[in-house]
UniProtKB/TrEMBL annotation:
It comes from the Bacteria. Pfam families: Ribonuc_L-PSP. It comes from Pseudomonas simiae. GO terms for cellular component: cytosol. This is Endoribonuclease L-PSP.
């Protein structure tokens, strides 16, 4: 039987209690991260698109670090975008400033909405700890 560890950064405990899921599950050296969004630790959605995208990457970084990984360990990523054509240029600029280019498979999907009004992106990934 493979060891399975729930990964819950302390700042994300409120979402676990409210929504009933964990930010990530680690099985062996593979970390499966639930989609991360741009909201504050108090679960408020950040309204400014650029600030929301920066926060989403920051939340993902926090989950990865709690699981013993870094952005460079991500092997597969899917991003879900509301109003993708309107915000993709800003999202890509933020991504390119924070996340290493050319290190993982990346799929982008346009969606009509996410879990809460005002959310513009959700970043889901799988990382393999080196």
């Amino acid at each position: 039987m493979t060891d399975r560890h729930l990964i819950i950064p302390a700042t994300m405990q409120p979402i676990v209690e409210r929504a009933g899921y964990v930010p990530a599950v680690k099985v062996g050296n593979t970390l499966y991260c639930a989609g991360q969004v741009g909201r504050t630790p108090q679960l408020a959605v950040i309204e400014d698109p650029e600030a929301q995208f920066i926060a989403a990457w920051g939340n993902l970084r926090e989950v990865l670090e709690e699981g013993g990984c870094r952005f460079e360990d991500v092997v597969d990523m899917t991003t879900y975008h509301v109003n993708m054509s309107q915000h993709m240029a800003v999202f890509r600029d933020v991504k390119n400033s924070l996340f290493p280019r050319g290190h993982c498979a990346w799929t982008t999907i346009g969606v009509s909405e996410l879990a809460h009004p005002g959310l513009l992106v959700e970043i889901k990934c799988v990382a393999v700890q080196r």
